[in-house]
Amino acid sequence: MRALLAGSARLYLLLASVCRGLSSGSQELRYPPQRIAVIGAGIGGTSAAYFLRQKFGKDVLIDVFERGTVGGRLATINLEGKDYEAGGAVIHPLNLHMKHFVKELGLSVPKGQGGLMGIYNGDEFVFEESSWYIWNFIKLLWRYGLNSLRMYMWVEEILDKFMRIYRYQAHDYAFSSSEGLLHALGGAEFLQMLNQTIEESMQKSGFSQKFINEIVTPVMRVNYGQSASINGFVGAVSLAGTDGGLWAVEGGNKLVCTGLLYASKAQLISGTVISIEEKIQQKGRSGGTVNLYEVTYNSTSGLARDAYNIILIATPLNRKIANITFRNFNPPIPDFSNPYQQTVATFVHGHINASFFGYQDPSQFQLNGIFTMENPKLFINSMGTVSPVQDRTAALNPLLGPRVWKIFSPQPLTKEQMNLLFLSYDSTKAKTWLAYPHYSPPEKCPPIILHSRMYYLNSIEWVASAMEMSTVSAKNAALLAYHRWYEKMDMIDQEDLHERLKTEL
Ligand SMILES: Cc1cc2nc3c(=O)[nH]c(=O)nc-3n(C[C@H](O)[C@H](O)[C@H](O)COP(=O)(O)OP(=O)(O)OC[C@H]3O[C@@H](n4cnc5c(N)ncnc54)[C@H](O)[C@@H]3O)c2cc1C
Ligand SMILES: *[C@@H]1O[C@H](CO)[C@@H](O)[C@H](O)[C@H]1NC(C)=O
Ligand SMILES: *[C@@H]1O[C@H](CO)[C@@H](O)[C@H](O)[C@H]1NC(C)=O
Ligand SMILES: *[C@@H]1O[C@H](CO)[C@@H](O)[C@H](O)[C@H]1NC(C)=O
Ligand SMILES: *[C@@H]1O[C@H](CO)[C@@H](O)[C@H](O)[C@H]1NC(C)=O
């Protein structure tokens, strides 16, 4: 009750001070906002707080609401005293926002080591890497012709265009929709990728069905727990993850989130946001109005309310994830409760049962990663050895003997399934995620602008769900909120940015 009253008192004070500063209708926009709320302290919300601070300056109060732990889908799990990445694990070398954050926050990025990978079709391995690089190359050529080389070129071309976002954002340009952002990077071709599956995209580009089934599909299964029927753009993002040089943060990727939160000087409010309501307040004699958003949240001290000028929602608006009710909006905010894909990450310290994977002589088994093809009898998507976040190089040794495996599967593993996968194991732990969107192109992204000053960052997940995508969306939303507040419309949805910024070098 006290918190509730305190909330209302704050709302009143905020209203009063906003009103005092204003004289006529549209002029209110010249004053800086006083309070901004960010809902969700994952990489999206914490990087949004950081970018909001950069744009709006030191005086604005920024509250970040978090129901669980800071980091969200960047989280670790403890097994036998060591921590392992249970959610978002690897970062691409060209993810420039993430790279900038770790540098700015003084975090360290040890060199990871790759291991040997094999592709399992449910009966046997159709492809296995060996420790001899040249031999792998010859095997790839033999089995898939030039498909794998062409894939790297195909992905690189897409990545090149994607990289334009950093220049646009460095010049402060923002986009009012995820489709608009995508169009500014790669035109109709990129938008088209949202409308077709990665399989269709690659078929049209001349890749063989064998390559799609044996290489592309297993990569989609590892990264998104889904088949090659996910949209072409997220598929390409997923394939970019097969590049070398992937990295992770020493101590855990979630340290980026706690670091950004600290650097943003935002206030963390531990609580669950339940509803958001629009409050339109008359400003007295001049007759103008002030729009505020009242956030109702549930914390350890009960229900409370606070009012904000601007709101950024940095969690999927899926009823099973963030059940936020929008009250009093006219027109009402539609329901974007699109389905999310369940993925279970199971960690096991044990001896793998190589004969389950068709090995006649288990002592020959040397793989660190098992990717799988589509096969209804398979109950796992992938499994691979992992290192603790404190010692990223440990996964490879000892080569024989018990190791820690991370298994992705759509359902929790049963005891019987565990006994098939492992000869023996001494400990295991699992985390069930609603991990990423369940993609089914043609994809339509939910809006970024939910209401005049309320923005939805996780719209971008329907283009592709990845840490860097959340940070790109966070910076975009911070810029969008800023330009719309100060009515700098010439910074939003500009055409031909790529051509224009070329001459501006
Ligand atoms: C198993 C797995 C593996 C992955 N692997 C990779 C990878 O290797 N590389 C990569 O780049 N990406 C990977 N991803 C995707 C990546 O983790 C996500 O895209 C990214 O972390 C999403 O961040 P976010 O901040 O947008 O959302 P989240 O991290 O989900 O943050 C949302 C936050 O909001 C909070 N919240 C929700 N509702 C409320 C409420 N009502 N009130 C207050 N707080 C609320 C939640 O508790 C959560 O902390 C993986 C994801 C999973 C699950
Ligand atoms: C994608 O499909 C939608 C309908 O689902 C359509 O409105 C849109 O124009 C299509 N976009 C492209 C680039 O083909
Ligand atoms: C708020 O939290 C308390 C305790 O955590 C819980 O009992 C209550 O049901 C919650 N209320 C709402 C509206 O979610
Ligand atoms: C979401 O919240 C509404 C109202 O608070 C409630 O009626 C509904 O059961 C909730 N849904 C889920 C899936 O939790
Ligand atoms: C190992 O895999 C084989 C082949 O699938 C299976 O028969 C056996 O039960 C599994 N488990 C053990 C402990 O050997």
UniProtKB/TrEMBL annotation:
<comment type="function">
    <text>Prenylcysteine oxidase that cleaves the thioether bond of prenyl-L-cysteines, such as farnesylcysteine and geranylgeranylcysteine. Only active against free prenylcysteines and not prenylcysteine residues within prenylated proteins or peptides. Involved in the final step in the degradation of prenylated proteins, by degrading prenylcysteines after the protein has been degraded.</text>
</comment>
<comment type="similarity">
    <text>Belongs to the flavin monoamine oxidase family. FIG1 subfamily.</text>
</comment>
<keyword id="KW-0325">Glycoprotein</keyword>
<protein>
    <recommendedName>
        <fullName>Prenylcysteine oxidase 1</fullName>
        <ecNumber>1.4.3.2</ecNumber>
        <ecNumber>1.8.3.5</ecNumber>
    </recommendedName>
</protein>
<dbReference type="GO" id="GO:0030328">
    <property type="term" value="P:prenylcysteine catabolic process"/>
</dbReference>
<dbReference type="InterPro" id="IPR017046">
    <property type="entry name" value="Prenylcysteine_Oxase1"/>
</dbReference>
<dbReference type="GO" id="GO:0005764">
    <property type="term" value="C:lysosome"/>
</dbReference>
<comment type="similarity">
    <text>Belongs to the prenylcysteine oxidase family.</text>
</comment>
<keyword id="KW-0560">Oxidoreductase</keyword>
<dbReference type="Pfam" id="PF07156">
    <property type="entry name" value="Prenylcys_lyase"/>
</dbReference>
<keyword id="KW-0732">Signal</keyword>
<dbReference type="Pfam" id="PF13450">
    <property type="entry name" value="NAD_binding_8"/>
</dbReference>
<dbReference type="GO" id="GO:0001716">
    <property type="term" value="F:L-amino-acid oxidase activity"/>
</dbReference>
<feature type="signal peptide">
    <location>
        <begin position="1"/>
        <end position="25"/>
    </location>
</feature>
<keyword id="KW-0285">Flavoprotein</keyword>
<keyword id="KW-0458">Lysosome</keyword>
<feature type="domain" description="Prenylcysteine lyase">
    <location>
        <begin position="127"/>
        <end position="494"/>
    </location>
</feature>
<keyword id="KW-0274">FAD</keyword>
<dbReference type="GO" id="GO:0001735">
    <property type="term" value="F:prenylcysteine oxidase activity"/>
</dbReference>
<dbReference type="InterPro" id="IPR010795">
    <property type="entry name" value="Prenylcys_lyase"/>
</dbReference>
<dbReference type="InterPro" id="IPR036188">
    <property type="entry name" value="FAD/NAD-bd_sf"/>
</dbReference>
<dbReference type="GO" id="GO:0030327">
    <property type="term" value="P:prenylated protein catabolic process"/>
</dbReference>
